[in-house]
Structures are given as structure tokens and as C-alpha cells.
Amino acid sequence: NLEEVTLNEGLKETGLETFGYCYALKEINFPNSLETIGQRSFQNAGLTKISLPENLITVKGGAFVSCASLQEIILNENLQTIESNAFQSCGFSPASQTLLQVLSENAQAQLRFTHHSYMLIW
Questions:
Q1: Could you tell me the end-to-end alpha-carbon distance of the chain, in angstroms, rounded to an integer?
Q2: CB of 103 within 8 A of CB of 87?
Q3: pTM of structure
Q4: Residue 92 near residue 68 (C-beta atoms within 8 A)
Q5: Measured between alpha carbons, how far is 21 from 105 in angstroms, rounded to an integer?
Q6: Cβ–Cβ under 8 Å, residues 59 and 79
Q7: Among 26, 31, 17, residue whose Cα is nearest residue 48
Q8: What is the pLDDT of residues 96-118, one digit of tens each?
């Protein structure tokens, strides 16, 4: 019953379904070296909150799909791509789901979080 994971510094990408179906996984600590979160890496995991590292550029399709307990995500300023369905069926509010859909459809959009508010810039 894996509940918390700290990924090693130097890791560039998480692989396909690396932690998929780890229902007990509540917390993931990403290294700053991480550039890509792979397809379905955390599908159906029990994560409640994630903070994406500074150097993350891409969140691939379905990376966090069906993480029903996921209530909070902190994006970084360097994030360039959120592929389709990356956060589908998560525990976010409908407004947050819509915002993430807009981001995944428009790679030029940037999202900057300050505490719990955000500003979308095209």
C-alpha cells in the first residue's frame, strides 16, 4: 500500500502507467528535473493534491485521468502543453475542468497561480 513517493532528481519523464491504479498513493513529490509526465502515469491513483515542478513542460494525455480524489493542482509558469484528457474525471470543480480543457486545446495559453487564484494569458 504505497501512500507517498519521492521521485529522484535527474528523472526527466515518468513512463506509461508508472503509478496507474495505485489507489493508496496520496502524495507524489516530483523532482525539479522532471520535464514530462507520461501517458496515464497516475491513472486512477489516490492523489489529493499535486504541485508540478518548475521545469515541467508537458503533461501527456490521461496523465491523471480518473484521479477522483484530486482536488488541487498547482501548475508552474514553464508548462507549455497539457494534452487531452490529462485531468479528465478528476475531483475538480466543473469550472476548473473547463479551464484545464481550454489549456489543453490552446498551447499558447499560460496559467499563473497566485495562492488560490489564477490568471489566464493568451
A1: 42
A2: no
A3: 0.79
A4: no
A5: 26
A6: yes
A7: 26
A8: 666 666 666 554 444 444 334 44
